[in-house]
């Protein structure tokens, strides 16, 4: 398959080398954004000592970043339409890079949190705008390959983030976790300015301030409430109030967006069946697989007594499965098509999560590695297929709104997935009649079954797809 035409020279001729550079650049920035959401997890104890705080207090550094992403992603489509793809994408890389350096220079929790918020704003613009640059310029027949390349960061970063952060923290300083973004950011900025066109669509579109506030309030309160529910010392009254506020804000945002002529998040793409299914059942799948990178390190370290390095080596088996599947994703999709692959592989992905509930401290290492590798295979195929199907039938004119909506839901499902893992552990502890201060291997068995059930629910929506859904993108044609 030929590389997609993602950029053009001033004369209008295709620039294949520029096309490859853009796809690689967007994938790299996605990796930076996703990695920074998880890499500091294993560095929290050292960071806490630097700030003279308890490690639990540093969770604010993770939460503030994820919440900022959820709040600002919805306006990325408007920003790209108003100021141009190159301007916004390059500006986002610059903001993200500068904020990363500031994170490494901070010495107090308030300044670190402020720097993480600034970093989140940059990341919120990088993800959907970078993908939009690919989607607008990629022909349908090249969409599978392009999406496959830019999808892997979302799969890989949560898996290698914790062990990489632990390695850097152990052999250097936690500050280098953020300083390493400086050379990557500078290179990305130069390439973005060199190869991206500053295309605009609907430049006169007004900013939907009310929609932005309502969507941001709904995302923030609901995500934060779920995080509180997953804690041992849940303030139930406060969490309940946040949920109520989030639901009210969400209902208000839904009504406003549907009535507004220029909404902050365009919902019209949901009228397209393939996009709607990818956002519906696909979101349940993303929630379930997002819980695994949270539960696995805890199970290996807290439940089985392994150290951080040993735990990281085991979780890299998932990463190996992710990469291995990339070699055969396109042939599989061309041979069988979206609907059969998503249904069968979705069931296999849920089963692989359920099988993790059978792992115990006495399970041979090779079996653990095989289970995680198989999970990585199904996880990667489902992830890529859903992301590609999302935009298979979306017209170019609706790509901006569809990309912003998809990125918003993606970020929400990643956050909800982590919260689901924590809540599932709490439910397991309650079912076993113990207090919430200790966790045993049996708790993880129940938690993985709960997470697998959520993933299985997501498969039900896939049956509504037409048998030839997305055939133009996958290249699959039924015989007869």
UniProtKB/TrEMBL annotation:
InterPro entries the UniProt entry points to: EmrB-like (IPR004638), MFS (IPR011701), MFS_dom (IPR020846), MFS_trans_sf (IPR036259)
UniProt topology in membrane: Multi-pass membrane protein
Any coiled-coil regions, as ranges: none
Protein name (Swiss-Prot/TrEMBL): Major facilitator transporter
Pfam families: MFS_1 (PF07690)
Alphabetical keyword list: Cell membrane, Membrane, Transmembrane, Transmembrane helix, Transport
A GO molecular-function descriptor: transmembrane transporter activity
